[in-house]
UniProtKB/TrEMBL annotation:
Name of the protein described by the UniProt record: AAA family ATPase
Gene3D superfamilies: P-loop containing nucleotide triphosphate hydrolases
PANTHER family: P-LOOP CONTAINING NUCLEOSIDE TRIPHOSPHATE HYDROLASE, PARA FAMILY PROTEIN CT_582
Pfam families: AAA_31
Lineage top rank: taxon: Bacteria
Length: 278
């Protein structure tokens, strides 16, 4: 097994710092690609919206996969999150309504790659997203905001962690999972000590889980010793991998699939946590 997470990153979920009426702004983060991060952001957002909570899916990944995953092709977008970050547009101007009632998306394009370079000398570079998002949330009553972060710990992810009040980490149960988790938690600690002292880890969600794999169970058991891990586990599922090619969350593609049921269960857990903290 790889090294365990460091002590500073091993705290279980603590009491909420957000006020009961505040929206839950959840950064979906993992610096490693291919772990189900965008799949989680898209399908969890859709599942929460299906529970009649007004929800925003904010795509902060230049690949734009979260946008296309809900039917918004980046090449068809005139304005995007990039325009909001550089102050050329407001979030209200870029929002697109999706097929899921109550779910809106702020789409991303490859222009976001330039944002990190253009903002590098800006003294407010880490708070650009927070400022732009705050303006939207004073006008629109979103209950949940899910931010799909790029697979890195660069400036875009720092902006997401600064704007969020919660972090959700999709984790594939593989050999190097705990090592990567340690680096991520160290970054979260730095953000808490700097631009966002109220940031908390909502929990870890196990993704692409293969119950036949002994290592997967070993990693899961080790993670549970250090973090809050959601009961809902997202299995490897063909329907989950097919849904993005149709521009739909799996809830619209095949609601009875194991993948869809996994995210519905995860949404239920999130909603219960917020209700208990209110």
């Amino acid at each position: 097994m790889p090294a365990r997470p460091s002590a500073s990153a091993s705290n279980k979920r603590s009491a909420t710092a957000a006020k009961p009426g505040d929206p839950r702004i959840i950064a979906v983060v993992n610096q490693k690609g291919g772990v189900g991060k965008t799949t989680t952001a898209v399908n969890l957002a859709a599942s929460v919206a299906a529970a009649e909570r007004k929800t925003l899916l904010l795509d902060l990944d230049p690949q734009g996969n979260a946008s296309s995953g809900v039917g918004v092709r980046p090449r068809t977008v005139e304005r995007s999150v990039y325009d909001c970050l550089i102050g050329r547009a407001s979030f209200k101007e870029v929002l697109v309504e999706t097929e899921v009632k109550g779910l809106f998306v702020a789409p991303a394009t490859q222009d976001l790659v330039a944002a990190e370079l253009e903002l590098v000398d800006d003294p407010e570079r880490a708070t650009r997203l927070k400022t732009a998002l705050s303006d939207l949330l004073t006008r629109e009553k979103f209950e949940y905001v899910f931010v799909d972060c790029p697979p890195s710990l660069g400036l875009l992810t720092v902006n997401a962690l600064t704007a969020a009040n919660r972090v959700l980490v999709p984790l594939q149960c593989e050999y190097y999972a705990l090592e990567g988790l340690t680096h991520l938690m160290a970054t979260i600690d730095r953000i808490k000590n700097g631009t966002n002292p109220t940031l908390e880890v909502e929990g870890i969600v196990l993704t692409m889980f293969d119950a036949r794999n002994n290592l997967a169970h070993q990693v899961a058991d080790e993670v549970r010793k250090h973090f809050h891990v959601f009961d809902s586990i997202i299995p490897r599922n063909v329907r989950l991998s097919e849904a993005p090619s149709h521009g739909k969350p799996v809830l619209l593609y095949d609601a009875q699939s194991k993948g869809a049921q996994g995210y519905l269960g995860l949404a239920h857990e999130l909603l219960r946590v917020k209700a208990e903290s209110s």
